[in-house]
Amino acid sequence: MAEKIAGLIVTGEMNCDSCGKTMRHPERYAYVYDDESGKESRFCEKCSREKGYLKKRKNERGEEIETFL
Ligand SMILES: [Zn+2]
Questions:
Q1: Which of 23, 26, 30, 51 has the greatest count of CB atoms below 10 A from its CB?
Q2: pLDDT tens-digit map of 1-12
Q3: Is residue 64 part of a domain?
């Protein structure tokens, strides 16, 4: 498996490839690119969380933040 994941900000509008929800600026989404199949997917925050692409972490000040892998 060779997936590349990037956390991006929606520009304009786009649909989540998992639940079909319309995402609008300035929501965050996960852009997932599969090297082997060349397939691109975009997932809303909720689906990203369910799929494990969005993880809770603590930043250097001890605040809880969510970041994409
Ligand atoms: Zn979704």
A1: 30
A2: 689 999 999 999
A3: no
